Description:
Elements: E1 2-4, E2 11-13, H1 39-48, H2 54-57, E3 59-61, E4 70-75, E5 81-86, E6 92-98, H3 101-124, H4 138-165, E7 172-176, E8 179-184, E9 187-192, E10 197-200, H5 205-210, H6 216-219, H7 248-251
Parallel strand pairs: 3-4
Antiparallel strand pairs: 1-2, 4-5, 5-6, 7-8, 8-9, 9-10
Amino acid sequence: MKVKCDYCRQMIDDGLDKCPNCGATINKNRTSAAQPKTIEELKKWYTDHNLPPEETTRFFIGKNYQEPKAFGIYQADDGDFVVYKNKANGERAIRYQGSDEEYAVNELYQRLKVEIADQKSHNQSKPSSSSGMSKPTGCCSSTVMKICGIGFAIFMVICMLVAIFDKTPSNGYYKYNGNDYYRQGSSWYSYDDDSDTWSQVDDDSFLNDSINSDTQSEYQSDDFDGSSFEDSTWYDSGTSDDSSDWDSDSFWDSDDTWDSDYDSGSSWDSGSDSSWDSGSDSGWDSDW
């Protein structure tokens, strides 16, 4: 697996003590000790954080679940790790497919933490059943309802516009006009058969114009015969951060270990599975 040097920003082999490019010492305690790196560790993390059953949360870890409205991760027969989302209409969107298990697990782990936060926020916003609270009446109640209705309408219009104009394809391999490409973030990379290497596409406007979220299934490829992009110097596994944005005081303690408070807000403490509502979320129509 490749990691990024915090100093010169070059991709290097994981496990090295010093960067071969700039000589900097490699920080090996960068990721959270509590953060899962394998599918089995993610299963344990799920259980340890008291989350409801997978049929309630719709997160299927280690399973190639086929029904609509589901997030999941599994290892395919060819060894690749696949992170997916099944939309409300049953269509599957592939978030990641490749040989990097840690990267794949992190993709679903981050999405699961977002979902937990959203569910907690949803529960906190529910009206209180306390007898000491009274409902607004008369014109006050009517005005509040109108404001809420207008706000909801504006929100729905924004969601519709995002869905219409966001044509960004997902990361992964693509075949276009007989050539092999890999999309990572906002960049495209092309494969050279003669040198068996990958290089960044300087002018990728033709790819962005031709391959988008509506047509990605037409060009997306599940396999690749040459050297994998994950083994190239361009590949970013997502396990390193830009040192210019790194706030050491917020995440690290005095002996360079991860602050356990980072993970403390992810436990599900409601005690009732019924309070987790994943069925009515309009986000099931998006790719992720």
